[in-house]
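Q: Could you fold this chain for me?
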Amino acid sequence: MNSETLSLGGINVGDALPELKVQVTPKLVIAGALATRDFTRVHHDREHAQSQGLSNIIMNTHTTKGFVGRFITDWAGPGAFLKKISVKLGVPNFAGDTLTLKGQVIEKNAADQTVTVQYAGSNSWGDHATGKVTFMLPGDN
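A: Sure. Below is the predicted structure, expressed as structure tokens.
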């Protein structure tokens, strides 16, 4: 985790972000669902999830977006302001698996002080979430 916010001048198109690995525990899945007021049973009831053809409970979309945001701010620092997070969901993120987030800077706009990162979050089944994040950073002083 970066305790200092990166400057716009210190980032280049093509920069790779440090990988973020998240252990997807049942507690994490359930807490994420409850924190986002998502009471859908596949997020907290293993027997129900299995009755729906799933092997275990699954992470909800809001929790995934939260980890995508953390992935960016862990790298960019606490002064990064997230403007847009796009998420295309793929395979489910089951409790007991590991979510691995990777990304690369694909655009830098000095005029509006924004950076865009393309990312992929994968687990043992494949891509769980892919998309782009656009955020603002302070310019060079």
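A (continued): The longest strand covers residues 97-109.
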